[in-house]
């Protein structure tokens, strides 16, 4: 892709029924929204995680076949960051955001509980996470460990 965005598909036990994607969008605006919508139409993802959205309170994704759950930075550095999870409307996915706690690092971590039916009617359950990694600054390793500790705790709690 020309603009440097990265895309990666993931698989898990329900992958033959649910198609996952991840995009680093490097900012959010009308033009980027249109680019993302085109990509989603082409790839036909059911669940997409977007990072580096620079999301702010007043930005939402409207006029698309996806439901948006977004999380912006409020207390830490407001440059960069911002994470979004999109899931396709009418796909039969039950999606619920999981509370990851309240601390500075948690602004860059989102998790949702997803339930869907497989071909034989059995309910598949999974936790889908979105984490915006800190790549610069001296304390990046420490910050990223805290973010993954948050995600690890959430996944462990959902298994219980």
Automatic annotation (TrEMBL):
It comes from the Eukaryota. InterPro entries: Endo/exonu/phosph_ase_sf. This is Craniofacial development protein 2. It comes from Portunus trituberculatus. The lineage of its organism: Eukaryota, Metazoa, Ecdysozoa, Arthropoda, Crustacea.
């Amino acid at each position: 892709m020309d603009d440097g965005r990265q895309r990666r598909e993931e698989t898990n036990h329900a992958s033959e029924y649910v198609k996952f994607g991840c995009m680093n969008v490097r900012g959010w605006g009308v033009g980027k929204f249109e680019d993302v919508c085109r990509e989603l139409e082409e790839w036909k993802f059911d669940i997409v995680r977007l990072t580096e959205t620079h999301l702010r309170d007043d930005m939402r994704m409207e006029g698309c076949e996806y439901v948006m759950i977004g999380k912006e930075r409020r207390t830490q550095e407001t440059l960069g960051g911002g994470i979004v999870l999109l899931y396709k409307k009418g796909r039969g996915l039950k999606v619920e955001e999981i509370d990851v706690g309240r601390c500075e690092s948690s602004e860059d971590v989102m998790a949702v509980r997803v339930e869907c039916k497989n071909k034989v009617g059995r309910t598949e359950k999974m936790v889908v996470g979105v984490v915006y990694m800190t790549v610069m600054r001296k304390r990046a390793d420490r910050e990223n460990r805290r973010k993954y500790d948050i995600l690890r705790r959430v996944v462990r709690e959902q298994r219980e």
